Amino acid sequence: MVMATGDAPAETDVPEFVKSLQDAWDKVDDKYAVGSLVVASVIALWGSTGLISAIDRLPLIPGVLELIGIGYTGWFAYKNLVFKPE
């Protein structure tokens, strides 16, 4: 068996962000519910990115959605920015 000699292992400094995250996690009463919400959020994010990429692959839909976005931006600017209601 080989053993290292010398100094004890150096302690790493934990960043302040990690410490505050650990403190916040320790204050949580229902860790199971928070963990479930995190997992559900990750699954929802993954599913929504899949849905958006599937819509983006359709031949006509991205162009139509772009036109709708440009039209809505123009309407919003005309209605709220150009002629400000008094």
UniProtKB/TrEMBL annotation:
Quote any Pfam family the record assigns.
CAAD
Q: Where in the cell is it found?
A: Membrane
Entry keyword set? Membrane, Transmembrane, Transmembrane helix
Q: Cite the Cyanobacterial aminoacyl-tRNA synthetase CAAD domain residue spans from the record.
A: 20-85
Is-annotated flag, keyword Transmembrane?
A: yes
Q: Which residues form a coiled coil?
A: none
Q: Does the keyword Membrane apply?
A: yes
In the bilayer, the protein is annotated as: Multi-pass membrane protein
Give an example GO cellular component term for this record: chloroplast thylakoid membrane
**Top-level division of the source organism's lineage:** Eukaryota
Residue ranges annotated as transmembrane are 32-53, 60-78
The record's annotation in InterPro entries points to: CAAD_dom, CURT1
Specify where it is mainly localized: membrane
Q: What is this protein called?
A: Thylakoid membrane phosphoprotein 14 chloroplastic-like
